[in-house]
Amino acid sequence: MWSPSPPLDPKTAAQLRQAATRTVKCLQKKGYETYWAGGCVRDQLLHKTPFDYDIATAATPDQVLEMFPGSNAVGKSFGVVIATVDTFPFEIATFRKDQGYSDGRHPDAVVFTSAEEDAQRRDFTINAMFWDPITETLYDFVGGQKDLNANHIRAVGNPTLRFQEDHLRMLRAVRFAHRLDFSIETETAAAIQAQAASLKNISPERIRDEFTRILIESQKPGQAVWTLEKLGLLKTFLPEVSALQHQPQPPEFHPEGDVLTHTLMMLDDMDQRSPALAYAVLLHDIAKPATATYDGDRIRFHGHAEKGTLMAEHILRRLRMPNAIIEEVCSCVKRHMRFMEVKKMRKSTLRRMVGNPYFPTEFELHRLDCRACHGKLDNYEFLQEQMHAFDQEPVLPEPWIRGEDLIQMGLKPGPRFGKILKQAYDQQLEGTVTNREKLLEWLRMTVKPKSH
User: Fold this and answer.
1) For a tag site, which of 64, 236, 289, 303 has the least CB within 10 Å?
2) How far apart are CA 231 and CA 122, in angstroms?
């Protein structure tokens, strides 16, 4: 699964650029027309530091392999070779023209061609420019620089054909628009709306990775999800999220509006970005439409956290999400309503809550949840104070009492053991006993072996 890459430090970024320049120079010295291509050119023109460099060349894959021994030829049939230069891997692609896309993803065949024709097969104009780092010359055959200056995402050529070639490009259009704060050009947007249903033909893994990038990379992820909804894309792979738009909430608790509005506000408010947090936000109220009732007083959503846990797991498995993320997100969905009760919880319950390995994500989810509705953070601040108090010792210290202690007291192993050990650990966490000896004394007074 795709995961966000850490930003490059300036030294590594400079070394990467030098290696990418050297790769172009090596190919040009052999007489092959060669340029940087795609995203690195776009980012450079936007005065952003590229984090990778794709290279396009007139050299054939065999010629590239000859020049860079040991390269990865896994994409050779599509004209692509992965070469390592100064420890950095570079995708070196031969200028090509694609012929047919029967599967809506891969070209049926490729024909090696010129840089100008190569530009015509690419997805969006801002990604179809070339740069010669040796002469510092831009080659723009599709009007990419003009669209870059106008903040437009425009498909190269006929947008309908571009999206028929690879349906995932419709999601990519939304990602680039919201990552760069651009707008999707009118004809390109219309082509997406017309073909949105074809996204169902894309594998769940590819949709998952592209959508995860939208949630993590967008300047405002909530607005990006709203664009997916307006273009008809969201309902093709997340109909449960699309349905949140039509679920009203009690205005005294949710003056912001329906469940989708609340969810999108939370996504936009995310400071910390991780796949687990983003999907926890997206799915925390997913069962509200399914559990909504009206009792004559107001709308209620009894059991929406419990049902939402089941729905979230089903959705995430449908997207082929890794088990670790499924477990963390489902924990957040299941437990997100518990924060209402923190001021009434026993100390042992609070410590167990804070000691949960997923608590940092749950805690941030709660903060975002509050900010997107009533705005009250008193429970959040109360927990911050409790966590500060726990800083002086482990939140969940090693238990003073274990099973062997109960055996020595004459108790026989069995179902009763777990309950007794929990009671003993609660006493330890509550601080009602101050050491192991006093806890053993408490046990001897309160627990007796059952007679047989």
Assistant:
1) 303
2) 22
pLDDT of 170 strictly over 90: yes
Q: How far apart are the C-alpha atoms of 214 and 210, rounded to whole Å?
A: 6
Residue 42 lies in domain? 10-150
Helix axis angle, 275-283 to 304-318, nearest 10°: 130
DSSP H/E element including 311: helix 304-318
Residue 433 is encoded by which pair of tokens? Answer: 């006993």
Taking 3-state DSSP, the helix, strand and coil percentages for the chain, each rounded to the nearest 5, stand at 55, 10, 35
Provide the 3-class DSSP secondary structure of residue 211: helix
pLDDT at 100: 65
Is the Cα dihedral 109, 111, 117, 122 positive or negative? positive
Domain boundary among 95, 122, 150: 150
Listed ranges 8-22, 65-79, 98-112, 376-390; the one with the highest mean pLDDT: 8-22
Positive or negative: CA dihedral 428, 433, 434, 438: negative
Q: Which residue has the tokens 């729905």?
A: 311
| C-alpha 222 chain-centroid distance | 13
What distance in Å separates the CA atoms of residue 268 and residue 127, rounded to the nearest whole number? 26
Q: Mind listing the pLDDT tens digit for each residue in 70-79?
A: 899 888 888 9
In a shared domain, residues 314 and 336: yes
- Domain with 69 in it: what CATH number? 3.30.460.10
- Which DSSP helix (H) or strand (E) runs through 36? strand 34-37
